[in-house]
Amino acid sequence: MSLPERFRFPPPVADLIGLEFHGAEDGRSRMSLEAGERHSNPMGTVHGGILCDLADAAMGTAWASQLGDGETFTTLELKINYLRPVWAGSLVAEGRVVHRGRSIGLVECDIRDGDGRLLARASSTCMTLRGDSAAGR
Question: Largest alpha-carbon pair distance within the chain?
Fold first, then answer.
């Protein structure tokens, strides 16, 4: 299953940051970012929030790829471990659903550089919303 048509994609934040969506299906997704100076923190490395946005987008699209009609979701918690500094270059994020319960599930994401080195690993708890809880989302 790919992303439900009701999801606004790409969202405005993807354009703002420069995220590229490469697909989502069966609880897996792939996003990328060409990181440059505009993504830097005061020390010159890519800001951790940018890496977190990339991971969040990959995990969210992985979760969304498994939603049914009338379902949407929200993120309850997000955690990220930064493993290497990044200054610039191609970053790839791969999200995957680890566990999907009826309402709550766990999603993970690895962010790698162009050489395949692991830069960060994130995890997220997502909650599927239905009925009135899903209205307007």
Answer: 46
- Threshold 0.85, pTM exceeds: yes
Least Cα distance to 14 among 42, 38, 41, 33 occurs for 33
The enclosing domain of 87 has a CATH number of: 3.10.129.10
User: Which among 50, 46, 52, 58 is positioned nearest to 22, based on CA atoms?
Assistant: 58
pLDDT digits (tens, 9 = 90+) for 1-31: 466 666 666 788 899 999 999 999 999 999 9
CA distance linking residue 113 with residue 14, whole number of Å = 19
Total number of domains in the chain: 1
Which residues form the domain of 74? Answer: 12-134
β-bridge mates for residue 109, sequence order: 95, 122
| Cis before 10? omega within 30 | yes
